[in-house]
């Protein structure tokens, strides 16, 4: 699984073509 790291340090899994899954811990991007 590929992860994207944002400037604020949050990481989210990326599924498919540019489809982002927001983690259940409430992190935003």
Description:
The chain contains no helices and 3 strands. The chain is mainly β and 29 residues long. It has one domain. The chain starts with a strand and ends in a 9-residue tail after the last strand. The model has no long low-confidence stretch (mean pLDDT 60). This is Diketogulonate reductase-like aldo/keto reductase.
Pick out its properties:
single chain; 29 residues; mainly beta
Spatial extent as radius of gyration:
9 Å
Low-confidence runs (pLDDT<50, min 5 residues)? none
Can you count the helices? 0
Content-based structural category = mainly beta
Q: Give the helix proportion (percent range).
A: under 10%
- Content of β-strand: 35-45%
Task: Work out the number of β strands.
Answer: 3
Query: Main sheet?
Result: 3 strands, antiparallel
Strand order of the largest sheet: 1-2-3
Could you report the average pLDDT, rounded to the nearest whole number? 60
The end-to-end span amounts to 18 Å
Order of helices and strands: EEE
